[in-house]
């Protein structure tokens, strides 16, 4: 099996699975309990917060765990949603931001322009800021194309206008892969999700700068175990996610992933006709390569590759049944947009895997174009 859908989810590290199983079996007390057994569970959450805080350069008290990035994003969007407030975002956000904002009760939601590579129009951002804007939410690494936004420059523009505007970034495809130093980025709130860096599903979190915490409201009410996310803490998964982040960082894999990306990019271009590489070569995550093939239905190609035990994605795994909003906003030609495939990498992928993929891909595209 060749798995090239790591932007959708990653394979858990074996060591992380074993550690989570150990916690499930031996440290199962409720972390909110005041007895010593419960405090052992709570200590694992504290250790997890320490790992995340060290990586993103914040205080442990500024880390808050949720059920995942979708919950995190919805918490942020709904915290500032009133008929008197405005929000600014982009048209190429993940659905958990885009849909949350389009269904929220804002006075107005402004969608920033972007160029054909997916980079935000900073002049449009400057023009859109006014006294009613309370939230600016920008995806850090685009989940379909890998484009990395210049968050530092965005922060400067926003904060020079009004320090009290909340700048939120969705760092789901960034944490564990590129620098997420919140101080250098200049962000107030940041979302992340454990299963994107070889941790378990169902756990994610928010960094919330301490002076913005009073402005953040939960979407579920109850025990408020993580202040902004009610419900019994899944401390085995929280601890496992932190260990997974630590392991991925220890691998120092970015150079290897970059070589994988370059190898696939170059050989697809050399081997297959009528190809449009959507992911730019600059300011783009090495972990994602979005490629469009002319006169191809991506669903057909995905299933052809699946028949050969190669697993990829036709765009975002969170956008089934929709027109591709992201690629449409990049101005991708209709002849190509239907044939867009997202390849996404991890350290479990080898160069041999990519060579096999290219060979199967070439045969599949030739066959599909002949038949259809």
From TrEMBL:
Stored SUPFAM superfamilies: PLP-dependent transferases
Keyword Plastid: no
Name of the protein in question: Aminotransferase, class V
Sorted UniProt keywords: Aminotransferase, Iron, Iron-sulfur, Metal-binding, Pyridoxal phosphate, Transferase
Species of origin: Anaerococcus prevotii ACS-065-V-Col13
GO molecular function list: iron-sulfur cluster binding; metal ion binding; transaminase activity
Aminotransferase class V domain: residues covered: 2-356
InterPro entries: Aminotrans_V_dom, Aminotrans_V_PyrdxlP_BS, Cysteine_dSase, PyrdxlP-dep_Trfase, PyrdxlP-dep_Trfase_major, PyrdxlP-dep_Trfase_small
Cofactor(s) needed: pyridoxal 5'-phosphate
Protein family membership: Belongs to the class-V pyridoxal-phosphate-dependent aminotransferase family. NifS/IscS subfamily.
